[in-house]
Amino acid sequence: MTAKASEYEEIRRKRLEENKKRMEALNLPNLSQALHSSPLSKSKSHSPSPLKRVKSRTIEKQVVVVRRSSRVANMPAPVYKEVVIDRVVTPRSRRYGGSYDRYRDYSKRVYASDEARQEALDKADKIQSDLQSKSHHPSFVKTMLQSHVTGGFWLGLSVQFCKTHLPNRDERITLIDEDGDEYETLYLARKTGLSAGWRGFSIAHNLVDGDALVFELISRTTFKVYIVRVNSPGEGEEQ
């Protein structure tokens, strides 16, 4: 153990002597001493840090008069306060001989009974059977629901009938009632139903929940429409 320690000390001493000789060869001891004794180093050692010499900014607050237009300079300053304004209600216009709100007020909906609905549907089926015996025009029967005759006024048609007989793109389709009056509607091919214009037809004919309609396609974009009233003894009777 002692031999190893003495050997380490000998190696360390030799390295120190070698380093000392290298420093003397490079004249490093004299340069270090000259640097410490120079006036520049003394002045720097006693000079404060540049950050310490930064003066804090003083913010001066001043009252500035806001410039006003010469037209209102001599007028008193405006005073703002809350003012309650009475709401003005404009009555809705009447269309198709009836009140607009009548078809939007869901609380006044009248639903047909299952028996009355089925009775109207049976009468419509008989009309369709008679039409098919007289002509080869395709036709279908549609029972009216509340969504068809109130609110949104959207009439969805049979998907199979639309794919087989109607255009494969949006087009105008004409509805002709039993009096010969024509109503133009918009057929939406992707949704297979009637949109714009159907509302006018429905209101003009006072359609209600439970009515049964027979649609006879007499041309590519024209339907002849027969209406069977719910709770009505007549067939195809208009009101």
UniProtKB/TrEMBL annotation:
InterPro entries per record: B3_DNA-bd (IPR003340), DNA-bd_pseudobarrel_sf (IPR015300), REM16-like (IPR044837)
Keyword terms of this UniProt record: DNA-binding, Nucleus, Transcription, Transcription regulation
GO MF term (any one): DNA binding
Family matches, as SUPFAM superfamilies: DNA-binding pseudobarrel domain
Subcellular location: Nucleus
Gene Ontology annotations for the cellular component aspect, listed alphabetically: nucleus
Region (Disordered): 20-55
Transcription among keywords: yes
Domain TF-B3: start-end pairs: 140-231
Ranges of compositional bias, category Low complexity: 35-51
Keyword Transcription regulation annotated: yes
PANTHER family for the chain: B3 DOMAIN-CONTAINING PROTEIN OS03G0184500 (PTHR31391:SF4), B3 DOMAIN-CONTAINING PROTEIN OS11G0197600-RELATED (PTHR31391)
Name by which UniProt lists this protein: TF-B3 domain-containing protein
Organism of provenance: Arachis hypogaea (Peanut)
Lineage: Eukaryota, Viridiplantae, Streptophyta, Embryophyta, Tracheophyta
